[in-house]
Write a structure and sequence with these properties.
It is built from six helices and seven strands. It is α/β, with parallel strands linked by helices and 180 residues long. The strands form two sheets. A five-stranded parallel sheet has the order 2-1-3-4-7, with helices on both faces. Strands 5-6 form a two-stranded antiparallel ribbon.
Length: 180
């Protein structure tokens, strides 16, 4: 049995993923006698704000989440940025787990530790560096993504291959149809 990271888990997700995966994750944790609660916000970049962050923090405080808590960020880049920033500042920093649900988040935003919210005239202007304790990737999430989102994530994969791995780039080039 794996040692738990915390005594309580705050699942933070958006309104789309709450219905699709959040409630199921919550139920699975509760069935394992894990103290967990689901927090969601309206899907979209507009929610990546100080106001949403404050709502998440106040809700966690109201339910008694303390320093012995852990956040699970269930979603793509917006969810990961917001939930990670909450984790970076809540109780002066608590651990968090990234569960990315988009290809772009799987290969980029979930692993860098950059977490932030947007302000009126600037994207990612207020934030921190707070690395996740774990990144859990389930490729089944990719089956539900529109082709546009897969292509965007794949562009990031190709960029990494161009920068660092010539053989991987040639593999992608030869297999792009199969990959898509």
């Amino acid at each position: 049995k794996i040692k738990p990271l915390a005594n309580a888990y705050a699942i933070i997700t958006d309104s789309n993923l709450e219905k699709a995966y959040g409630k199921k994750l919550l139920k699975n944790l509760q069935n394992e006698d894990v103290h967990a609660h689901l927090f969601s916000f309206p899907a979209g970049e507009k929610s990546k704000s100080r106001k949403t962050k404050e709502r998440m923090e106040n809700a966690m405080l109201n339910l008694g989440f303390g320093r012995d808590s852990c956040i699970i960020a269930l979603g793509g880049g917006v969810v990961g940025d917001l939930a990670g920033f909450v984790a970076a500042t809540y109780m002066r920093g608590i651990p968090y787990i990234q569960v990315p649900t988009t290809l772009l988040a799987m290969v980029d935003s979930s692993i860098g530790g950059k977490v932030a919210v947007d302000v009126k005239n600037a994207k990612n202007a207020v934030g921190a560096f707070h690395h996740p304790k774990k990144v859990l990737i389930d490729l089944d999430f990719l089956k539900t993504l529109p082709k546009k989102d897969l292509s965007g994530g794949l562009a990031e994969v190709i960029k990494h291959a161009l920068i660092k791995d010539k053989n991987f780039f040639h593999f992608l080039e030869k297999n792009i149809s199969r990959i898509l």
